[in-house]
Every structure is written in structure tokens, then in C-alpha cells.
Amino acid sequence: MNVPLLDLVAQYRGIKDELLPALQAVIESQQFIMGPGVARLEAEIARLSRARHGIGCASGTDALLLPLKVLQLRPGDEVITTPFTFFATAGTVHNAGGTPVFVDIEPETFNVAPVAVEAALTARTRALLPVHLFGQMAALERLLPLAERRDLRVIEDAAQAIGARRRIAGEWRLAGELGWVTGFSFYPSKNLGAWGDGGMMVTSDDAVADRLRKLRLHGGPKQYHHDEVGTNSRLDTLQAAVLLGKLPHLAAWSARRREHAAYYSEALADVPQVRTPCVDPTNEHVFHAYTLRVERRDELQARLQREGIGTAVYYPIPLHLQKCFSHLGYKLGQLPEAERAAGEVLSLPIYPELARPQLDYVIDAIRGFYR
Predict the structure, then answer these.
(1) Half-sphere exposure (Cβ direction) of 113: Cα atoms closer than 13 Å
(2) SS3 236
(3) Which of 43, 197, 314, 350 has the smallest C-beta neighbourhood within 10 Å, fewest atoms?
(4) Strands 345-348, 290-294: parallel, antiparallel or unpaired by DSSP?
(5) pLDDT tens readout for residues 335-357
(6) Looking at 227, 247, 267, which one is the last position of a domain?
């Protein structure tokens, strides 16, 4: 049996009759750049996130970079974030002119540890950049007060967490609802994936939304009028059409991911060499990734590969130990939980179209390896 880490062909087969006419309509209109579908998608993602504004952009990376550029960071300005995440989280801080400050993670959720964030605050801190890793929201109810007391901005990296929510003060709050600005990614492998690159920023700050709209369009409100130096970061209309077609399925797809995760976790609960994902009881996880901690990780991954099972290691080298950030002076052992996670994690197939026999095949292969 073959169980790929991700099977976008299976998803396509289930929805192609809905999506292809929408793409054909864009082709017939020839409105490929900033066509009406982009504005519709912006409104829908803002509504999903309980934010006032959605601003489409070219990628999830730009969805973090542009808000950081709004801050007009100067040399020495610091942005506190996690080292256990995709590179773009910290790369955008550097490219916006700031200095990423890495702090350790919670071993249970893999998300940034609020106590470590608080300890890292300095007079140079300008923003906090928590990541809702693997589809589970970080503890915003502990981070937002830290930011408010110091007049800092909180930028949510929700690239993996569209539709995720967290119960705060007895109320469900969505990814994108509470941050100053939130960045989403529509990379094809994401829970809501385009057929190419794409991103979205959401905010409830009217002035910031206006700045972001200008920055994505060479810094001007309209063509040939430039208030500041921006860039070209537009979400094209074809991608908007794909995403609008997929969006009505997102809630059901997320529910299916949770069902698969529960099935995996129950079946692997008695394997002592495996630690299944910890879901914070205040969170509704959307399981962009189903990530185990395992013993003999590399051996297990090799065995699963031989048996036709796709897996991934997110992420093998924490960002504070990457060569490009060596000038920041971090050393091995300085952020032990992130480093430990990098040596133990293994993500399994979790996409909605998985069939029960495929899940059983993965489970049996893992149990057989340790037996």
C-alpha cells in the first residue's frame, strides 16, 4: 500500500467540477490581477477570522513581511518569536530590518512559551510574533497582556492554522481575531491551499489595513501614485477563484483531520516509544500536521519510507542554530526544548481524503517497527 504524506490529486478529484468552471470564468473575464474574486475572498477570510479587513498578498511569507514593514523597524529593534517553525517567521523579521529574538517552546504544544517571552522582553522589543504551530493556537491570553503593558504589536503567524480557535475567558476566539495583524498562507499543502502561492493578512485596525493595501501595491493607493516604497505582492484572481471554491469545504476538512488524529492517537497510545500530539483542552486544533515525538526517529522514518508511507520532519534544525543567524550568537543547548523537539518529531499523513485502511497501514507499520 502507498500512503503519501499529502495527496492533492485526491482532493482535486473531489472538487474539480466546482473549481474548473470558476477558473474558466476568470479566464473568460481576463481579469487576472486584482479581479473581483480577490475582494470576495478577502471579505470571506476576514469574516472567518472575525476581523474587519482581509488583504490578499502573494504568499504567506509576505503576509508576515508586510506587517513587519508597517512597524518601520530600525537596526537593533527586536521581535520575539519561536525557533521551532518554518524559516519565513524569522526570515521576515530580518528582511524587515529587525532582529529576531528566539525563545524556547512549550514541550507539549510546540508553541512559544509565554514565560520565556516575558523573560526576553527588553527596551528594544517592538513586537511579538507567535506561531500557531501545526494548527494549534498559541496562548494568546498570556501573550497579549505582555504586549499591551509595553505597547507592543502582536503579529500572529497563522500560516498553518486557518480556522483554528481557542477558548479564552470562556469564549471561542479564532486565529486572526485578536492579533494586531495575522498572516495566513495558501501554499498548496496548507489546509486551505491554492494552486500556487498566495497569502492573506487580516486585521481590525483600519489604518493598518490601509497601509497594507498600499504596501502590497508598490506603496500607493492607485497606479502611478506612491505614498511610500512598497512592493508587488498581489494575490491573483485565479488563485482567489480556487480558494473561494475550496473555502466552503474547509470546516468539514478540518473536522476530518481531527477524526484522523483521534484515531491515530488512540491506536498509538500504548506504544511507549511514541508520544502522540498534545492538544491543549482550550484549543480546537485543525491539524495541519499530525506530529509525533518518537524514539529512533530517523530509523523509523526510513522504515516507513520503505513501506510506502510518506512522513516529514518539521523542523530538523531550529532557527537559532541556522547558519544564517549565527551572527546572533545562539549556542547549542541554549533553547533545549526546541532542540529536543527537532530531534524527535515526525509528522504522519493527516489529509482529509485518507481512507481507514491507509490509517491502519500507517499504525501497523509504526507498531511493527517498535515491536
Answers:
(1) 16
(2) strand
(3) 43
(4) antiparallel
(5) 999 999 999 999 999 999 999 99
(6) 247
Closest CA to 226 of 235, 215, 234: 215
Question: Which residue stretches of the chain have pLDDT < 50?
Answer: none
- pLDDT reported for residue 222: 81
Asked if 85 and 226 sit in the same domain, the reply is yes
* Whole-number pLDDT of residue 221: 85
What is the reported pLDDT for 102? Answer: 98
Are the C-beta atoms of residues 177 and 211 closer than 8 Å to each other?
A: no
CATH of the domain at 169: 3.40.640.10
Pairwise CA distance, residues 211 & 36, whole Å: 21
Task: Give the number of domains in the chain.
Answer: 2
- The predicted-structure confidence for 119-151, as pLDDT tens digits, reads as follows 999 999 999 999 999 999 999 999 999 999 999
What is the Rg, in whole angstroms, of the alpha carbon atoms belonging to the chain?
Answer: 21
pLDDT digits (tens, 9 = 90+) for 249-273: 999 999 999 999 999 999 999 999 9
Q: Which of 247, 274, 298 is the last residue of a domain?
A: 247
CA dihedral 220, 224, 229, 234 (to 10 degrees): 60
pLDDT at 313: 98
Q: CB of 291 within 8 A of CB of 347? A: yes
The whole-angstrom distance between residue 32's C-alpha and the CA centroid of its chain comes to 26
9 CB contacts (<8 Å, ≥6 apart)? none
For the chain, helix (H) and strand (E) counts, in that order, are 12, 13
**In terms of domains, do 350 and 275 share one?**
yes
Instruction: Report CA-CA distances (Å) from 300 to 72, 337, 344, 364.
Output: 46, 21, 11, 12
Residues 192 and 326 reside in one and the same domain: no
